[in-house]
Amino acid sequence: MKTFSKTDVGVVREVNQDYVFTSEQPVGNIPNLLVVADGMGGHKAGDFASKFVVETLKEELLQSTEDGPEAMIRTAIVAANRKLIERARQDIRLQGTGTTLVAATVIENTLYFANIGDSRLYLLNDEIKQLSKDHSFVQEMVRLGGIKAEEAKYHPDKNIITRAVGAKEKIEIDFFEYRLKKGDIILMCTDGLSNMVEDDEILRIVKSSRDVVEAVEQLIERANYNGGRDNIGVVVAKPFADEVNL
Asked: Which CATH architecture has domain 2-238?
């Protein structure tokens, strides 16, 4: 596996509330780890939340005795949620803080990932497909038939999320498994990328890049060129890069 991750403050924002992490080596009993988080809250609360949750997730995984990737990741997220809420209670500056989270691992030919909020996981090959499900007010409207999917992208309330780590004591986590095939590329990102760059353009940039580093750099550059209205967090992973020349 080859991975690269990076965040950028963007053109408009002053504080970077996105936090990303990748490890091609084991983190406890997880053989590799890909994480993206988009914090929310006051001036400092959002960047604290995203970093705190990702770092806590890693710590929990390092000492996890759970059996299987889903149990390990779920238990670690529940612990990170509890600890963030505890910290927010102790510090008034952190009240209302929270973060989206996508955490993934690849074991043999299977992708396992958890999702809370509207940060995304895409699978790219001959086409681009969003595998995660947005937990947002607008997506709930789409599911209920209130608006069409095409309208969601430009809806004024599209940034209102319905789930976040740190928002509630009882956290709802979506968990997915997906069988991978040769040539598949994993892209995880915050809405600073997905709101600023169309899916087809994301696919073109990634497929035309020489490696994962260039892919991430080019995606961030394009999001900023298109306006950079939010922080940009990106993870690109090629699961089979060690086996074949992709």
From this structure: 4-Layer Sandwich (3.60)
